[in-house]
């Protein structure tokens, strides 16, 4: 076993940035910016400064300016080190470890880690009478005169003499206090440092909202554009900006505070929260913030809100006899469908999941918030009965719709699970399987036709070892306009899904509904190819289009892998006294006729209107034999056409825009009465 190695100095972050910042991609880079801004926000919360400016420069460096009390930079007798050294080089150094801290930057990691991960960083601190400047590059402080490194990249603190070579001290002639930090994340550390201005705006807009009275400006140097974020009344103003005219309640606002501990042997700490909410018929949104950090994964406060709202609304519904007989209780998902809610909480002791601060798990915070909200909601409903009735009635509408959808979802899940199986044999009406035991997936072909009569012709003609046949019984649904539920209720569509065995791919707009169901498994595919084989008349072509549309929307993988084919059969039969010729289209027919005419041979022309008009030998020889398949099996080459073009034609031919369909037919098809189209 080789000797162990300890990372030192800047290497602790630069070589393991994912540990500190969550990732080495743009998310980690975003985290560096937010950690630095968080320090300025923390100073605002402690009563220093009400203004922050963030600049995104054209070279992808960033500047953060605040008007607070200035980052400590001079000598710290207690720690026998410079404060700038502690702030920029020492992990877990900071001023937020006291039991009375409600800071964003709780662990003393943010600024230091951001400095270590930077290509360069300049920090200027304005105190009452002094201006302090420190510069770093590649995560290491540099000499203020030469710009060179002063010592080894290790964990040692700078001596007074070394620190003096880094720290530039000047008189503060600008009559201001605050901190200026200009830095550039290092592309040797992160894979991407181009933080979207939209992300910066969204992130800091929310910080302005949960820190009422804090003005945050963001300047995009490349676009020469300034953005301003300010909420005088905090989350109450924010709720009004994200809701609309479809609110069916007033904006409701509660606040409370208390002291407690998470366990009997843990220290007591302070906690307070404010919550603003409104009920709305169109918008639903839940946002949780703790010590100004957005809790994207929730935790204690999200659990408390779920418990409190569910309890209070169920109690009101029960006491006012609005439930139907034997009706189940309201769930939080029913409430959430119509709820816009923002909670901002602060505590002097916080248990975050990790440095990215996406959730908290303090037991006291959960219990206190839950009990407090229960009482406040109960009192609000008593004092505002008309509004409470409106709220509960709408939530009951949500509940009953969700119950119906859940019942439908269970039925669909059962259908999908039945059709998502790899079984060797299936008993399905209309399906004649191939010899599954003596054939391989890639040589199997499922021939899909439009009914009983053609199916009989195919079965009598095909190679039963590798070919299966399925006759569609009933009208195949136009799946472009249809939901998963509609498709599974359509007998021919459901039969085809079951015969294929791989299930279906849920369209984007319905994925949320079926997120907990495995609906598609290509390993369960029973046939390597699908041949769509319908009559050559207009009705048959309509079925062709309906089937292609189904694959496009619900099993696009089979199209993209080139597994779906249109199978054409001879359209014309040309007979002479001695010979019979078959033509697949007008061009072939004309070529044969011209040849016969040039030889002076008389002929008759017959039209094959349907598959049932072929005898067994004809169908095998001219449609299904290996030689014929080279001509009759037309692969739908999905990948050679741009997605937007494919979408345009499906929308035109199968969508709900009748005018677009008429336009297409007018331009491409003749002898059609457009007044008969729907």
TrEMBL record:
Catalyzed reactions per annotation: ATP-dependent breakage, passage and rejoining of double-stranded DNA
SUPFAM superfamilies: ATPase domain of HSP90 chaperone/DNA topoisomerase II/histidine kinase, Ribosomal protein S5 domain 2-like, Type II DNA topoisomerase
Enzyme Commission numbers on file: 5.6.2.2
InterPro entries per the UniProt record, alphabetical: DNA_gyrase_B_C, HATPase_C_sf, Ribosomal_Su5_D2-typ_SF, Ribsml_uS5_D2-typ_fold_subgr, Topo_IIA, Topo_IIA-like_dom_sf, Topo_IIA_B, Topo_IIA_B_C
GO MF annotation terms: ATP binding; DNA binding; DNA negative supercoiling activity; metal ion binding
Annotated ranges, domain DNA gyrase B subunit C-terminal: 609-665
Domain DNA topoisomerase type IIA subunit B intervals: 234-409
Pfam family, one: DNA_gyraseB_C
Gene Ontology terms: biological process: DNA topological change
Keyword annotations from UniProtKB, A to Z: DNA-binding, Isomerase, Magnesium, Metal-binding
Protein name per its UniProtKB record: DNA topoisomerase (ATP-hydrolyzing)
Organism: Clostridium botulinum D str. 1873
């Amino acid at each position: 076993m080789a000797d162990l190695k300890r990372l030192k100095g800047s290497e602790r972050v630069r070589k393991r940035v994912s540990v500190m910042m969550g990732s080495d991609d743009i998310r980690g880079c975003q985290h560096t910016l937010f950690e630095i801004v968080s320090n300025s926000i923390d100073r605002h919360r402690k009563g220093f400064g009400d203004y922050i400016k963030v600049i995104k420069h054209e070279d992808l460096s960033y500047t953060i300016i605040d008007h607070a009390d200035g980052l400590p930079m001079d000598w710290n007798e207690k720690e026998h080190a410079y404060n700038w050294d502690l702030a920029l080089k020492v992990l877990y150094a900071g001023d937020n470890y006291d039991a009375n801290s409600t800071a964003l930057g709780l662990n003393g990691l943010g600024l230091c880690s951001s400095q270590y991960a930077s290509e360069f960083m300049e920090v200027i601190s304005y105190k009452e009478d002094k201006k302090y400047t420190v510069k770093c590059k590649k995560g290491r402080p540099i000499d203020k005169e030469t710009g060179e490194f002063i010592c080894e990249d290790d964990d040692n603190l700078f001596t007074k003499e070394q620190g003096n070579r880094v720290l530039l001290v000047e008189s503060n002639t600008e009559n201001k206090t605050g901190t200026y930090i200009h830095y550039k994340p290092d592309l040797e550390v992160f894979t991407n440092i181009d933080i979207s201005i939209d992300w910066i705006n969204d992130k800091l807009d929310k910080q302005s909202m949960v820190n009422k009275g804090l003005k945050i400006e963001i300047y995009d140097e490349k676009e020469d554009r300034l953005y301003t974020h300010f909420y005088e009344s905090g989350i109450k103003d924010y709720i009004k900006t994200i809701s609309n005219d479809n609110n069916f309640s007033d904006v409701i606002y509660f606040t409370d505070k208390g002291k407690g501990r998470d366990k009997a042997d843990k220290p007591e700490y302070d906690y307070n929260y404010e919550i603003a909410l409104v009920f709305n018929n169109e918008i639903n949104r839940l946002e949780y913030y703790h010590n100004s950090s957005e809790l994207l994964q929730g935790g204690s406060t999200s659990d408390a809100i779920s418990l409190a709202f569910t309890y209070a609304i169920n109690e009101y519904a029960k006491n006012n006899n609005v439930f139907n007989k034997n009706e189940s209780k309201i769930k939080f998902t029913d409430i959430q469908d119509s709820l816009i809610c923002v909670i901002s909480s602060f505590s002097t002791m916080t248990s975050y999941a990790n440095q990215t601060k996406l959730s908290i798990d303090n037991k006291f915070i959960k219990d206190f918030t839950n009990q407090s909200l229960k009482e406040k909601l109960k009192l609000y409903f008593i004092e505002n009965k008309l509004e409470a009735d409106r709220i509960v009635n709408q939530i009951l509408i949500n509940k009953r719709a969700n119950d119906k959808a859940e019942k439908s979802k269970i039925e669909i899940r059962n259908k999908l699970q039945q059709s998502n199986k790899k079984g060797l044999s299936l008993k399905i009406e209309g399906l004649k399987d191939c010899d599954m035991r003596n054939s391989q997936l890639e040589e199997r072909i499922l021939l899909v036709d439009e009914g009983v009569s053609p199916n009989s012709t195919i079965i009598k003609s095909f190679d039963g070892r590798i070919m299966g046949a399925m006759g569609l019984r009933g009208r195949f649904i136009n799946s472009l306009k249809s939901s998963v539920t509609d498709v599974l209720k359509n007998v021919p569509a459901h039969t085809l899904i079951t015969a294929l065995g791989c299930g279906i791919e849920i369209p984007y707009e319905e994925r949320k509904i079926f997120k907990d169901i495995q609906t598609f498994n290509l390993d369960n595919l029973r046939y390597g190819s699908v041949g769509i084989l319908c009559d050559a008349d207009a009705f048959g072509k309509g079925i062709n289009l309906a089937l292609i549309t189904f694959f496009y929307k619900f099993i696009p993988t089979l199209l993209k892998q080139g597994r779906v084919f249109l199978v054409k059969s001879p359209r014309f039969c040309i007979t002479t006294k001695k010979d019979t010729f078959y033509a697949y289209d007008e061009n072939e027919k004309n070529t044969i006729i011209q040849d016969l005419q040039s030889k002076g041979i008389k002929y008759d022309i017959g039209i094959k209107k349907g598959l049932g008009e072929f005898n067994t030998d004809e169908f095998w020889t001219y449609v299904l034999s290996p030689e014929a398949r080279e001509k009759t099996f037309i692969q739908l080459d999905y990948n050679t056409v741009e997605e937007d073009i494919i979408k345009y034609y499906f929308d035109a031919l199968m969508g709900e825009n009748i005018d677009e369909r008429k336009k297409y037919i007018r331009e491409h098809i003749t002898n059609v009465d457009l007044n008969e189209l729907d």
